[in-house]
Structures are given as structure tokens and as C-alpha cells.
Design goal:
This protein is α/β, with parallel strands linked by helices. It folds into 4 domains: 114 residues, Rossmann fold, CATH 3.40.50; 180 residues, Rossmann fold (3-Layer(aba) Sandwich), CATH 3.40.50; 122 residues, D-3-phosphoglycerate dehydrogenase, domain 3 (60s Ribosomal Protein L30, Chain: A, 2-Layer Sandwich), CATH 3.30.1330; 75 residues, ACT domain (Alpha-Beta Plaits, 2-Layer Sandwich), CATH 3.30.70. It is 32% helix and 24% strand. It is built from 16 helices and 22 strands. The strands form 4 sheets. It has a 7-stranded parallel beta sheet with strand order 8-7-6-9-10-11-12, sandwiched between helices. The protein has a 6-stranded mixed beta sheet with strand order 14-13-15-16-17-18, with helices on one face. A 5-stranded parallel beta sheet has the order 2-1-3-4-5. Strand 15 and strand 16 form a beta hairpin. Helix 1 runs parallel beside helix 11 and helix 13 crosses helix 14. It starts with a strand and ends with a strand.
Length: 529
């Protein structure tokens, strides 16, 4: 018999599944004060929570028998994953239950912005004013909808919008072009192309270093006058100050927004505009989605307790005897290398091959898994974990191949990851760990160098001629950007050089463009790890 405790309110449908299972002893503690709750969980085998319960190190210290934490929803920010992993506790979430709810919520905001229905409703009901001319709207039919991010929700918004007769443009460098074409949408190669040609823009991306403030004043300036913007994905994808300025100037016709950078948000400068339609993060708030989430988490917790599967686990239990200390450090390095590759390439990666040499050959499958998690985190809007990564990679058409590295190398342990993308393009990076605890990149496409993959990194390729690096330093200095580390690799045959420049502050696009205009510059890319 497994003791399962429900700490936060979930749909009664989930409760019924737990109540009716012969191997579950169910306890409901939704009314217990949060400071008293941990003391009542000493014998619990599993707990089910939402965002109201903070499960930190102190909380877990009371849970002597805990094996599974079920999060009835997507976010796990309220759970100390590291501490749970150390204690061998599996953390499971339910990332797909709100897909349809979020899709329909996006459509609701879009239609509100097109027809100003909330305003007309309020004026008629509250002020008793019947004014048809004032609320003249526009149709979705024949308009061009730009969708940034073609994941689970973005693709469904595309299908529903096309049923209204909209033309759909998609920008998502991390998907196969066929995915958009198969549903009748047109994929564009650059964000600028989408911005310039869309009447309405909705965003459906994960919140990463690449997508944070992805739409700012510069991007809004490129849009059509009278553009409509929608964000029901994550707060911070649109720069809120830029939205305010765009509304003030009339550049933005209407804004539909369900998420804010800081929440809860009971008051915001954007609220002063009548053409801004806001909701308090209601994307998942439907009875149906809450039922799906509750039923899903109840079944997943039971499966995990019985050892039948961990489909939505967001952490893994790493036993000390399974992987050596050096192996664990390589796992972390492999994930960072994967993240570096996807950020640097910024295109659909169709295949990664992970070559291993030395003792770490014993962990080639695990290293491949960690590398794929790093790659996928920047490519998809799903919550990527070490359990679902292989399934999502297969769904996305990403092939993952572990191999033994058979070339000569000076390193006792070495990992090389080759990413293949576009038509015949490929990028290789190699790394090692200099004991103790000193993981470094030591190779990239024929260039030898040594640098730690952390922080703000500029990758700069140039013709190997005097004065260029000094010019780069001068540009950064002019903008008060401090260089934290600098590493250089050279190819004598091609007379090219590759620099990894770590900075204390993130470098914006304007500064990158200024560096790229230096005579002798070939390419520049920003990566954050």
C-alpha cells in the first residue's frame, strides 16, 4: 500500500482515480497550513502539489519515505530539483494537459483584439451605451498571421487561424520546413521577414536567453503600422517597455497579453490603454484542462510508485556507483556543449553524433542523452527532461548517434559532438575535463583553444591579420563591456582565427553588428550558458 498525500487542490477526477486504486492510501491535506504540512508527511510515499506549496530542502528533510513528487501542471520552480534528486525522489510534472486550453486562449485574445469585444461589452452593460459605429472591427479572414514558434501550441493556433481564412507565416529555425508546409503554412527564414509581413503576431517559444526580450523596440519598428500582438506563452518574451511605447505611438493597434515578466501583476502601465486586453495567466484555466492534468498526474504518480514508467519525470536519480565522479562532470559538459551547438547554429539540427574516448566510453548512452537535452532546450517549447528527450528528438526528426572516438588524442577522456544541419553543413566541438572539476571546450571545427562553457560568450571568427582583436576590444570598451576571459585559436592554412570572448555583461545586437563591421571580420555569434 502506497500513502499518497494531495497538498494542493486538484480536480475531483484525479482524486477519484487515487481513491479507487486498491494500492493507494489517499490523504487530502489541502487545508493544512503550509508551515505545518511537512511535519505531516513523514510516512508519505508520494505527494501531489501545484504552485502553492514550496518544496525546498527544509520541506524535504521531513519526508523520510518520499519516493515521488507529482506536480499538477508544467512549472516546477517551487520544487528543489537538486535536493529531490539527491534523495532519489522522482519529480513528475504534466506538461501537455493545457495545450488545447492555451491554444483556445490565444485565439480568444486574437479575436478580442480584432473586434474589441470586451470594450463593447463593458460599454453596453456598464454604461448602457448602444454605439455600433464606435466598435467597428476587422476580420481575421485574409490577414497574415505571424507565429513565432511552431511547437504544440503554435501549430494548433496555425490550424485554427487558417480555418478562419488567415494566411500563416511561421518563424522557427528549429523545426523541419515540412512541418509548416504540411499544414498549409509558410515558413520564413528570418524573424525580420515575419515581422515586416504580418498583420498579427503571436509568440509561442520557450523562455530562454535567446528568446528573453526577443521582441523589443527594434523589432516593433520593423512591423507594419497597426500590428496586433499576442502573448499567451511566457512573460518576458516581449519587452514590456517597448510594448508601452508602441501602443503610445499608435504603432501597435491592439495587444492581447496573458503573461507578464513579473507575476502576479495587479497593476501595470500597459493597463492604461483601452486597446490592451489582459488576463491573469489564464491559459491553462479551463475545467477540461484541469481534469486532464489531475487525471494525468494521478496516473503518472501511481505508475512511478509501481515502477511502471516515468514518462514526465523532470529529474533523474543518479546513483553514486553508476557513474564515476569524472563521468558526472562529463555529463554536465555534454549538456552544455549541446546547448552551445543549438544556440550557435540557430537552425534545425537534423543529426548529432557523440564520440567518446577513454573511461567515459562506458557512459556513451548517458552522454548522448545529456547532449540531446542541451540541444533540445533551445529548440522546442516543451519542458525537456532526461526521460522525454529521446521521444521529443524522434518527433522532431533529430537523430542521435553515440560512437567511440577512434582518432588519436592527447586527452585521457574526450568527447566530440558533431552537429549536422541545413543541407551539408556540420559543426564539431570537442571537450574534456581537466581534473579536478575543470570542464573545458578544447576544439571547434579545426581550431584548438581552451575555455569554460559558462556565462556570456561571443564567438568571433575573422581573417588572421594584425589589429582585429584590438579593434574588438575597443568596441567593447567603448560600450563599457568588460572582458572576463579571451581565448584564441588559429588556422595557419586558411589564415583564419576563432575567438571565444567571455564578457561580464550580455552584449546586444547593436554591439555585435558593430564588431561584425570591423575590416577582416567573418562572423559573430552570441551564446549564453
Amino acid at each position: 500500500m502506497f500513502k499518497v498525500v494531495v497538498c494542493d487542490t486538484i480536480s475531483e477526477k484525479g482524486i477519484e482515480i487515487l481513491k479507487n486504486h486498491k494500492d493507494v492510501d489517499l490523504s487530502i491535506k489541502t487545508d493544512v497550513r503550509k508551515d505545518e504540512l511537512p511535519k505531516q508527511l513523514a510516512d508519505a510515499d508520494a505527494i501531489i502539489t501545484r504552485s502553492a506549496t514550496t518544496i525546498d530542502k527544509e520541506f524535504l528533510s521531513f519526508c523520510k519515505n518520499l519516493k515521488v513528487i507529482g506536480r499538477a501542471g508544467v512549472g516546477v520552480d517551487n520544487i528543489d530539483l537538486d535536493e529531490a534528486s539527491k534523495k532519489g525522489i522522482v519529480v513528475i510534472n504534466m506538461p501537455t494537459g493545457n495545450t488545447l486550453a492555451a491554444t483556445e486562449h490565444t485565439m480568444t485574445h486574437m479575436l478580442s483584439c480584432l473586434r474589441f469585444l470586451p470594450n463593447a461589452n463593458n460599454e453596453l452593460k456598464r454604461k448602457h451605451i448602444w454605439d455600433r459605429k464606435k466598435w467597428m472591427g476587422i476580420e481575421l479572414y485574409g490577414k497574415t498571421l505571424g507565429i513565432i514558434g511552431m511547437g504544440r501550441i503554435g501549430s494548433r493556433v496555425a490550424v485554427r487561424s487558417m480555418s478562419f481564412g488567415a494566411n500563416v507565416l511561421v518563424y522557427d529555425p528549429y523545426i523541419k520546413k515540412e512541418k509548416a508546409a504540411n499544414i498549409g503554412a509558410k515558413i520564413v527564414d528570418t524573424l525580420d521577414e515575419l515581422l515586416k509581413n504580418s498583420d498579427i503576431i503571436t509568440i509561442h517559444t520557450p523562455k530562454t536567453e535567446e528568446t528573453y526580450n526577443m521582441i523589443n523596440a527594434q523589432e516593433i519598428e520593423k512591423m507594419k503600422d497597426g500590428v496586433i500582438l499576442i502573448n499567451c506563452a511566457r512573460g518576458g518574451l516581449y519587452n514590456e517597455k517597448a510594448l508601452y511605447d508602441g501602443l503610445k505611438s499608435g504603432k501597435i493597434r491592439a495587444l492581447g497579453i496573458d503573461v507578464f515578466e513579473n507575476e502576479p501583476q495587479p497593476n501595470h502601465p500597459l493597463f492604461e490603454f483601452d486597446n490592451v486586453f489582459v488576463t491573469p495567466h489564464l491559459g491553462a484555466n479551463t475545467f477540461e484542462s484541469q481534469i486532464r492534468v489531475a487525471e494525468g498526474i494521478a496516473n503518472s504518480v501511481i505508475d512511478a510508485l509501481k515502477g511502471r514508467g516515468y514518462e514526465n519525470a523532470v529529474n533523474i536519480k543518479m546513483e553514486e556507483e553508476e557513474v564515476s565522479e569524472i563521468g558526472k562532470q562529463f555529463l554536465g559538459l555534454a549538456e552544455r556543449m549541446g546547448s552551445f551547438l543549438s544556440q550557435y547554429i540557430k537552425s534545425f539540427i537534423r543529426k548529432i553524433t557523440i564520440y567518446t574516448h577513454g573511461e567515459i566510453e562506458n557512459y556513451s548512452n548517458s552522454l548522448s542523452l545529456f547532449a540531446s537535452v542541451g540541444v533540445l532546450k533551445n529548440m522546442v517549447d516543451d519542458h525537456i527532461n532526461y526521460v522525454n528527450a529521446p521521444y521529443i528528438a524522434k518527433e522532431r526528426g533529430l537523430e542521435i548517434i553515440p560512437k567511440i572516438y577512434k582518432e588519436k588524442t592527447e586527452f585521457k577522456n574526450y568527447i566530440l559532438i558533431k552537429a549536422e544541419y541545413d543541407d551539408n553543413a556540420a559543426l564539431e566541438i570537442g571537450g574534456t575535463v581537466f581534473e579536478p572539476n575543470k570542464a573545458r571546450i578544447v576544439y571547434m571545427n579545426g581550431f584548438d583553444m581552451e575555455i569554460e562553457l559558462t556565462g556570456n560568450i561571443i564567438v568571433f571568427r575573422n581573417y588572421d591579420q594584425p589589429g582585429i582583436i584590438g579593434s574588438v576590444g575597443a568596441v567593447l570598451g567603448k560600450h563599457k563591456i568588460n572582458i572576463a576571459d579571451f581565448r584564441l585559436g588559429r588556422k595557419e592554412k586558411s589564415k583564419e582565427a576563432l575567438s571565444f570572448i567571455k564578457t561580464d555583461e550580455e552584449v546586444n545586437d547593436t554591439i555585435l553588428e558593430e564588431i561584425l563591421n570591423i575590416d577582416g571580420a567573418i562572423s559573430i555569434t552570441r551564446v549564453k550558458l
